[in-house]
Design brief:
single chain; about 150 residues; mainly alpha; Four Helix Bundle (Hemerythrin (Met), subunit A); 2 domains; 5 helices; flat
Length: about 150
């Protein structure tokens, strides 16, 4: 076999192996759907909200999206301050500790506001819908991430 054919065969085998690796990775190593996606699917496709409920949910979701985006921007700024502190101190010094504390405070604030958002949506539901919603929230919070 000529060197050129051998090289083409090796390239073809490598290409097929790469494609197979991507396919296997997508099938077996796909991350779980985010909690927001599961709750969104439940709210908008399974609970059969009436038009008044849907209108209230839309308002709640719009308001939270704005607030969430603002908090995420603040978290990015906190991360930049942390990076600056690490670069300046090259260790776990007072500026790094302060930046970490500030970032954790914002993360906690985002978590609290997310829970307030979840409870605001729950308040729109009928009792029979709330039971399903509660089960989905508990499942999402206790899933082991596999």
């Amino acid at each position: 076999m000529s060197d050129r054919r051998r090289l083409l065969l090796i390239a073809l085998i490598a290409f097929v192996a790469a494609i197979a690796g991507v396919g296997i990775g997508r099938v077996f190593i796909t991350p779980p759907a985010p909690v927001e996606s599961e709750l969104h699917t439940l709210l908008h496709h399974q609970l059969k909200l009436d038009s008044a409920q849907q209108a209230r949910m839309d308002v709640i979701e719009r308001q939270f999206a704005i607030r969430k985006q603002a908090l995420e921007l603040e978290l990015r700024a906190d991360n930049a301050r942390l990076a600056d502190a690490i670069q300046a101190e090259h260790g776990y010094g007072p500026a790094v500790a302060a930046a970490v504390d500030q970032s954790h405070q914002k993360m906690g604030q985002l978590q609290k506001e997310t829970l307030e958002h979840v409870f605001a949506m729950r308040a729109v539901l009928r009792p029979d819908q709330a039971v399903q919603f509660d089960a989905a929230v508990v499942k999402a919070l206790t899933a082991d991430g596999r």
